[in-house]
Amino acid sequence: MTMRLHHPSCRQRGVAMLEFALLLPLLLLILFGITEFSRALFQYDTLAKTTRDACRYLSTQAAGDPAAKAIALCLAVYGNTNCSGPALVPGLAPAMVVICDSVDASQCPGDPPYTLTGGINLVAVKIQGYTFESDVSFTAFGLNFGLPSFTFGTIGTVMRQS
Q1: Closest C-alpha among 57, 154, 69, 74 to residue 105
Q2: Is residue 139, in this structure, part of any structural domain at all?
């Protein structure tokens, strides 16, 4: 008669796979959350840089020049001076861009004056009402997962106009 010995590791067979199967949804949720948060930060940074580029352009132009404002608007939305191609970030529209200077600051109520003592003029380019839309949305076990869309606060740049 042979006696079977049950080694303690035999009872552990499959436990690691079960633990992995239980933790996988949580790990995927964390991974997608990190990815979408990074994408939101990237879009915010792109918007901040585009306002800076448009404002830098306007700072070298005469105050109130409508052609310069049109070019700055193109720079802010499309990243080029002729308004061609797709917007720099999905969902960005020219109507979201606000340009204020010493000649016309009507769209920037509550801001400090754009004409300062000593003949110093300021110019501002702002993006208002941009909504970040998440690309990750899925349903598992009857629950909806994904980041909700949210609207960034006003993103803007103010510079001295020469």
Answers
A1: 69
A2: yes
